[in-house]
């Protein structure tokens, strides 16, 4: 791992290992009551990575991870990177079985890790059975489907529901041991430009397409935001956006290992109640949200007379931020110094455009310095 011209060179597991002996808190999943120190993250990453390779998956296999802001969703992505598996992140709330089929076939995924969806219990398992009835009588890791021919491994994170043909996530953890961890791929030999992730574009203007992303892109996507905003180890950021969006994962999933900044995830689907509690409990200095969500947060805060004085900076991503929303922010966030507005771009796994001076329009449309390499 090295730094040259303010850019980062290395791999995701390399940066996790760099912090791996620290007992400082890296991430908190408040609703689940799970706190990860840097040491915990390294151990969990290694254990799950070894487990994934023990069930017949091979380096460079493609893994689709469907979930939201939960502790093991976060670990799954890092574990795939550690095992030299190529991961992709998606929401578990597919509109129908055809949408899931499109993702699995288009991405040629060999495995899928299914976290609970909002819609119903065992939602993804039901969609998979609809697509491939063979799953109900197949052997674990040996699914043979005409509809989704590349898919062989189904891993369910809903531990209380076990089915023929599917592994549970705890079962994968249980397949790991010290010997298997010691035999994990040697990431120190990998090139920083090695492919680590695939991500679907939003599909708003045309059908969703897959974008290949390297370790270098994910690391520097985060690094660009760290430098633009000035994150340090004294900061604590509260996340109210979904981790399954790759720019959000690149930013918040990796910021502990790049800036030693602590990240708080209030709940899998951050509602105002949990958000307020987490911000107060951990004295968060930064809040990541979007204009729509923040509008709801402010309305609830005003009704309940909630004040959050620890917040110093608010980062709003996505749609345009109405001026009246900015004016209302200081009523509940009285110590806010900056309100930043940015736009995420899957193709660079980051937030290439970010502004925080509402009176200065010269920088609108201008990328951050780290994206002006040419």
From TrEMBL:
Gene3D superfamilies the record matches: N-terminal domain of ligase-like
Q: Where is the AMP-dependent synthetase/ligase domain?
A: 22-369
GO BP, one annotated term: fatty acid metabolic process
- Identification of the protein by name: AMP-binding domain-containing protein
- From which residue to which does any coiled coil extend? none
MF-aspect GO terms: medium-chain fatty acid-CoA ligase activity
